[in-house]
Write a structure and sequence with these properties.
The chain is α+β, with helices and mostly antiparallel strands. It has one domain: Jelly Rolls. About 30% of the residues lie in helices and about 20% in strands. It is built from 8 helices and 11 strands. The strands form 2 sheets. Strands 1, 2, 3, 5, 8, 10 and 11 form a 7-stranded antiparallel β-sheet that branches. The chain has a 4-stranded antiparallel β-sheet with strand order 4-9-6-7. The longest helix has 18 residues. GO terms for molecular function: 2-oxoglutarate-dependent dioxygenase activity; iron ion binding. Pfam families: PhyH (PF05721). Keywords: Dioxygenase, Oxidoreductase. This is Phytanoyl-CoA dioxygenase.
Length: about 280
């Protein structure tokens, strides 16, 4: 295991204190943006490490104009924690996992998987969608940390949220596509849910639930928008019978060996935070 600089290792072990009002906000709207979760040295250190690993793993050779809407949205690389022990120390950080657990009001969390989402200069939109369409998980106790590796103004295509839209069931059966962008956007137009589109400061991280509808704008700059994400689930999450081909694929890929109606305790899903062990 690569030894982190002492200041960064110490920072990742320092808890981030959530206020009761922030937990209540997340409970109501199923998303929240938190400032100064990462300090500048930590952010810069992992920006370099993650960029290095993405450059090694990326095999996308097709020009942007020849790709589908999904392909134009981002370069997507999974489970960097298994490929790079430096990156793993961010992904397994108790500082981040504790936030996820406290926002969901669970006694602990496991990792479902991580993914880097690098939106190239000139890259297109990420259509409206709800992540949990892809996940064969029995409850809604899921949450994604969206970690920009740089300050992210609107021109870079930050994450956008439909606050409180986890209450909508229509559109949950749609994978990320032009169709999901059109149908979900039309549905959201006739609701009272607030569309939140804001820049991210350096070190600011958002958390959103698996059923919250969200999207991202195009990257209208010539600069790569670099984002790392971590998907957490309740440490007692059970596998459900998959309902579509994508959930079957996720079961085989991210929860190998797990069985329906039992806690997902595969080697790829370790517990990252458990309040009972503190």
């Amino acid at each position: 295991m690569t030894q982190l600089p002492a200041a960064i290792a110490n920072f990742l072990n320092e808890p981030y204190t959530l206020k009761e009002a922030q937990i209540a906000f997340y409970e109501k709207y199923n998303y929240i943006k938190l400032k100064q979760v990462l300090d500048e040295p930590t952010l810069n250190y992992f920006q370099e490490a993650i960029t290095h690993r993405v450059n090694i793993m990326n095999n996308q050779s097709k020009p942007l104009e020849e790709r589908t809407t999904y392909g134009k949205a981002f370069l997507q690389l999974f489970n960097l924690w298994r490929e790079d022990d430096t990156v793993q120390q961010l992904i397994f950080s108790k500082r981040l996992a504790k936030i996820a657990s406290e926002l969901m009001q669970t006694s602990g969390v496991r990792i479902y998987h991580d993914q880097a989402l690098f939106k190239e200069g000139g890259g297109g939109i990420t259509p409206w969608h709800a992540d949990q369409y892809y996940w064969p998980l029995q409850s809604d106790k899921t949450i994604t940390a969206w970690i920009p590796l740089q300050a992210t103004p609107l021109e870079l295509g930050p994450l956008e949220f439909s606050a409180g839209s986890h209450k909508i069931t229509e559109g949950r059966d749609l994978e990320i596509s032009d169709e999901s962008e059109r149908l979900i956007q039309n549905k959201l137009r006739v609701t009272d849910f607030t569309h939140v589109i804001e820049p991210f400061d350096a070190g600011e991280i958002s958390f959103h639930s698996g059923w919250l509808f969200h999207r991202a704008g195009a990257n209208t700059t010539n600069t790569m928008r670099k984002v790392m994400t971590i998907i957490y689930m309740d440490k007692d999450m059970k596998l459900k019978q998959p309902e579509n081909k994508d959930q079957i694929n996720d079961w085989n890929t991210w929860c190998p060996g797990a069985t329906v109606d039992t806690i997902i305790n595969s080697p790829l899903n370790p517990v990252l935070y458990n309040s009972a062990s503190l």
